[in-house]
Amino acid sequence: MPPATKSIGQVLKVLKEEFPDITISKIRFLEGEGLISPERAPSGYRRYSAVDIKRLHYILDVQKNQYLPLKVIRENLEALDAGEEPPGPVAPTVPVTPTPPEELPAPLPPPTAPKGKRAIHVTRKDLLQISGLSEATLAELEGHRLVLPRHGTVYYGRDALTIAVAARKLAAYGMDARHLRAIKQVAEREAALIEQAVQAHGRRRTASRESIAEVMKLVMYAHAALLRTAIRN
Q: Where is the HTH merR-type domain (predicted)?
């Protein structure tokens, strides 16, 4: 085995001082996302070269100091691999009106922002601070595509903040990203039912956002009632 390579435990010790939240699970998660590719010894154990460790250091550094989502980090790594310079950090240009950490948005919001409430556009740093999530937990939620920036931007909206706060609170009950992924799958099936209902009544072309929101709200009320019934029984 080349002497320059290290085991995952040795890599953890190297990075732990600067990144105290790093864990073996986080390193494996980053590998699963394709951001690092350590060699495998004949025994099957991972072996990390100096290049792998440098790459890990870069990923953890931009997550900690620039609060970049995994999608942007992947793009930056691809630029580095191509010999290019990745873009610098993007300064926020949209004023932020944060929601208090202990306050969840309304349980039955329509697709548009609730009346009287401004749309939320927060950076990754703001999202971590407001929700109280750890960097590792947010990275895991992003990996499962549970919390994502608004399409085409680096800013997170109200739904992302809601999920982040809920994830932090659910963690106290032993529920993690795997459980939230199951909830997401249920939500996706319900969204498909809503779409079918609109199409069945020939309202797809003329339906307003308000009418779509009405169907969604009714489904959510029914879902909540059925969930309460199931728990009572």
A: 21-79
Quick: pLDDT tens for 23-50: 888 888 888 888 898 998 888 888 999 8
Is residue 154 within 8 A of residue 69, CB to CB? The reply is yes
Helix residue ranges per DSSP H, 82-208? 124-131, 135-143, 158-170, 177-200
Return the SS3 of 52. helix
Global confidence as pTM: 0.52
Q: Which of 146, 162, 152, 149 is nearest to 123 (CA)?
A: 149
190-227 confidence digits (pLDDT tens): 888 887 777 776 544 555 667 777 888 888 888 888 88
State which fold the 119-175 domain adopts.
Multidrug-efflux Transporter Regulator; Chain: A; Domain 2 (1.10.1660)
Can you give the residue ranges of every domain in the chain? 8-82, 119-175, 177-232
DSSP letter, residue 186: H
